[in-house]
What we know:
Strand order of the largest sheet: 1-2-3-4-7-8-9-10-11-12
Helix content: 25-40%
CATH topology of the largest domain: TIM Barrel
Number of helices: 12
Radius of gyration: 21 Å
Bound molecules: iron/sulfur cluster
Largest sheet: 10 strands, mixed
Shape: elongated
CATH superfamily of the largest domain: Aldolase class I
CATH class of the largest domain: Alpha Beta
Order of helices and strands: HHHEEEEEHEHEHEHEHHHEHEHE
Distance between the termini: 34 Å
Amino acid sequence: MITATTITKPDLRNFCRAQLSDFLARIAIPTSYHRRIFNLIHRPQLNDLATLTDLKRTVRETLVDQAQISFLQPEKAELSKDGTVKLAFRLADNSLIESVLIPEQDRHTLCVSSQVGCAMGCKFCLTGAMGYQRNLTPAEIINQVLATITYMIQQGVRRATTREFINNLVFMGMGEPLANYDNLLTALNILMDEQGLEFTERRITVSTCGITPKIGALGRDAKVNLAVSLHSADDQTRSQLMPVNRTYPLDQLLAACRDFPLGKKKVILIEYILLQGINDSDHDARLLAKKLSNLPCRINLLPYNESELLPFRCPELQRINAFQKILRDLGYITIVRDSRGADISAACGQLAGKTTRCQPRTTTKTDHY
Ligand code: SF4
């Protein structure tokens, strides 16, 4: 489900290999070239089909005449004191999206966006406060990866092959990936293609706020890691924090997680943002443990990244540790995750684009989210 942008000729980066092959056949490019062309167009630093001088001249000219490739360049790169880099990309329709590059020793994780804004309206999230603007096309998803690798090369990072630049790719940026399902799937196909970007299933994680029917579909259609933003084990609290819970309540969501096909030694990642006085009590921790019983999972506790635009607060360290201890004592692998890039608004829930005008949310004691 690619939506039209200002592009007139077909953008080859919107096609998985089978779709590209169909298109190339239609413009009379011999089959013997299809695989090679798919490989060439997913190389970083390529932004013009006319520069594909490896191809026979007639083939190249047909491509240039009938098609194009889109590409992204960071409009802004912000460097956090912890080494995290937030890259802002201007799209063809002038929308702004962000990706976050997180270095860890000699590894790099890239967090990509799947939509401009988000319709899910989670109350603690600045992207949610933007509202939904549109889905990203497969090319706009892929191009975040290619543009980031290009940026890394320009910064002096050297690797033997393209696949070694980014070790892990997480769909945890702007937007709800499962609400842009068809384009996500095409992008995953390209990312995981051996002639594309060669990501293995272990290296890609798709995160959802809980669009239950699509979790089942993802389990059937793609072999990737699944992360679920839970943030409360109590339906009433979760519905207030995350409107999606009114449509797909916890028991339905966790049933879909239990049915999600997991490879050997794989688990579902449970994300839980700790919000002071809302979901951080001992009772909340025990309830979480109870709800997650029989689910192979790992729990990531995320101390909330405070924003003056939203009314939530981060619990004290002592409370965070107590919450973690309860879960650990009950047998759950539970990690308190570092907040990376918070000083440049690149941490979880902080991506909103510089053009966004988020209005501060006011709160009362009885209606604090
Ligand atoms: S937390 Fe994720 S799903 Fe919820 S509003 Fe933010 S971007 Fe959307």
